Amino acid sequence: MASSLSNRSRSLKRLQVWALLALFGIGAFAFFRRAPHIPISPAPTRSYPTTFITGTVSDERSAELLEGVKVTFQRPSGDRFYAVTDAVGKYRIDGILAGEGSIWAIDYTQPNSRIHYRYPEFDSNGIDVLVPDHGLKRDFRLRRDGAMHGVVRDKSGAPLAGVSVLLQHWDSGFKESVETDAEGRFESIRLPIPAGKQEVTYTVTAVDDRFSQASAKVRVRPHYTPEQGAIALTMLPRAIITGRLMRAGKPLKGAFVEARPLEYDLAGEETKKGELSPDLKVFEAPPFYSSVSDKDGRYRFQVSSPMRYRLSFENPLYETVSNNPDDIVPEATNIKVRPGQTLNVDRALKPYPYGSLKGRLVGYTGQPIPWASIELWGPETTMTMPVGSTDEHGNFNFPRVLPGIYDVCFTLPDKQEGNLKVRAVKVRAHRMATAYLRADTTPPKISLLTKPPSHIRAGKTRFRLRLSDNVGLADVLFKVDADGFSFPEFTLERELKVGSKHADVTAVWNSHSVIDSKHRITLIAVDLAGNQRATQFDARIEGSVYPLRLKDGEANLGKATPAE
User: Is 62 part of a structural domain of the chain?
Assistant: First the structure.
């Protein structure tokens, strides 16, 4: 009985809660339904007044109004606006904002004709204008381009198809390439005439690998029509340069023959000395031709560009010292090549005036030095050039050496790094020079007169050294750890007399230049021949201006700045 009463009370409470929620929802719906509607208006926009550009486009020479010309106006932002002229040559561009911009009217081809116009003062950025609020009037007077047409034929009069014809105006840099049709004809109606010019000269060049180039200069005026200015170009066979090369009365095989262009003019007119003809610009690079002589000494090549050339003869293996038995003295001559011409240029070339060098390399005790590399160092070279080696008896022989004075140096095959200079020899043309070379291979001696210190207090440290050599001393070098020999903190109290055989010197080192740590000190004696011998010891530096201590075995982090 009690449980049934509790269930009824819970159900009654749920009904009461749902009734209250329903009443709340109905009241809220009624409130919002009666709320007034407040419209949201869009944000106000600012309007700018627009303006216009108008004008006419006409022929500069005849004042004829031109129909169908496209006029373009561009804002600094890059926005463009267009208009096209009507039947009476008028245009109007509307809807533009007042302010700066650029305007142009170019590249117009008259309908149903082959006449092309352009604005003579136009550049890549157009014409700068300022458009006021009340509009702008701008007229254009277009200049008619020049036109040219012609035909290209061979020597027999037959038309040549597929020939490239280059039309060039050098002052303005304009260049156009057209190609002949099946009847050998070509045409261009877009030859610009610069502003202020009533006549310009174009260079017309026909180029084909099968023939010599044919060229002509043509005067072009802005009132030319395609029916005017006709030209005819005749292409002749390519020129041939041939000849035979001899050396000491025998055919010269393997000689290199090259023809490089000099200053020239494709129309046949020579340029002034020191001035490069603008017709060189026909090519991306000046053309040159080459050939190599055969076993009979003959050479031959064909030339497509008629002009003046520098014809040179030299050996392709020509070096400072060469092993080619046919080395020659290079020669050159100037030639003028005409279309269809066969030019024969023979040459008797002189053998190169080599000398020779032979001799023997021995030590100071007279023993031969076998298998040493011999090098000749000329005064104009920046590095030595190996030319051979000694045999088992220390003999050497170099049959082909250019005339001159050389320092003879050698390198031992097993232990010596670098080369050791012996002495200078002079080699004359067509003569043999002999050299009996006594080389010093004994390194100098170096020792410390005092016991090497195991600890060094940072500062100036002195080392007493005893040096000796069988020939002569040259220098004392110094290094710390793996550093090189250039150490500005190391000096000698008294300068070493170069060439002396014995010397006691005092070396001074400012050890503030390295950090506190254990270092390996190396002192090197050098003799006149470049032989070296070193003495070294380990010492710990203490009290440096940069007291960065390292544990034994750690790498040295580098030198510190010397104390002021």
Answer: yes
Q: Which residue ranges in the chain fall short of pLDDT 50?
A: 1-2, 5, 35, 124, 264-285, 318-323, 416-418, 547-564
Could you tell me if 22 and 103 are in contact, meaning their C-beta atoms sit under 8 angstroms apart? no
Structurally, how many domains does the chain consist of? 5
- Of 235, 237, 184, the closest CA to residue 207 belongs to 235
Kindly state whether residues 481 and 424 are assigned to the same domain.
no
Max intra-chain CA distance, the chain: 148
- For 157-190, the pLDDT digits (tens) are 999 999 999 998 888 788 889 999 999 999 888 8
Go through the chain and tell me how many residues it has.
Answer: 564
Range of the domain at 343: 239-349
Judge if 110 and 186 occupy the same domain.
Answer: no
Distant-in-sequence, close-in-space partners of 20: CB < 8 Å, separation ≥ 6: none
pTM for the structure as a whole: 0.50
Rg (CA), the chain: 47
The CATH number of whichever domain residue 210 belongs to comes to 2.60.40.1120
- In the prediction, which pLDDT does 60 show? 81
**Residue indicated by tokens 């003869």:** 313
Q: Are residues 450 and 532 in the same domain?
A: yes
**Given this model, what pLDDT does residue 511 score?**
81
Angle at CA 109, nearest 5°, toward 106 and 113? 160
For residue 64, being part of any structural domain is answered with yes
Q: How many CB atoms lie within 10 A of CB 192?
A: 20
Are residue 424 and residue 372 in the same domain, yes or no?
A: yes
What's the chain's average pLDDT? 78
3-state helix, strand, coil in the chain (%, to 5): 5, 45, 45
Does residue 40 lie within any of the structural domains?
A: no
Q: Which of 349, 369, 386 is the last residue of a domain?
A: 349
Per-residue pLDDT tens digits for 289-339: 889 999 999 999 998 888 889 999 987 654 444 445 567 888 999 999 888
The reported pLDDT for the residue numbered 378 is 75
Within 8 A by CB and 6+ apart from 467, the residues are 444, 445, 446, 473, 476, 496, 502, 503, 504, 505, 525
CB 390 within 8 Å of CB 370 = yes
Nearest C-alpha neighbor of 306 from the set 253, 248, 241, 368: 241
The answer as to whether 54 is a domain residue is: yes
Same domain, 249 and 341: yes
